Amino acid sequence: MSVVSEETITLAGKTYTVAELLREADEYIRLEAAEQCFALADLVNDASTLVRSTVARKKMGHEVLARDVDWQVRATVAKYCNEVKLLDMLALDSHDFVRFVVVKRGHALELLAQDVDEEIAAIARYTLQRQDILSGSPI
After folding, report:
1. Which residue, of 36, 72, 79, 135, has the fewest CB within 10 Å?
2. 3-state secondary structure string, the chain?
């Protein structure tokens, strides 16, 4: 059971302030705090990929996390972000899975239709073709 107030959270029978949580060595305690939406702004810079991905899933810190060194965090941002400029940036990501998430969301299709990864390009072209058919535009 966890109890959350504005300044503290109780996890596994121990109460943490934000400062204490940030010093907590146990990644899973910090992960559970993020799951409970506690100290998300501070956990954006956590050492753990899991914690940072959870922060992104909670739709917090996307501006910072879209530039994360770990592709898994960037892919989570691509899945949960609704900011066009960040999705545009992620459509140019060096990791193919991040671009895959962007194309599956139907974003940057014209750009991704020319992607070096053939699967991503095929999905983008197919989606564009379906949009043309559904809008009644001639092919």
Report:
1. 135
2. CCEECCCEEEECCEEEEHHHHHHCCCHHHHHHHHHCCCCHHHHCCCCCHHHHHHHHHCCCCHHHHCCCCCHHHHHHHHHHCCCHHHHHHHCCCCCHHHHHHHHHCCCCHHHHCCCCCHHHHHHHHHHHHHHHHHHCCCC
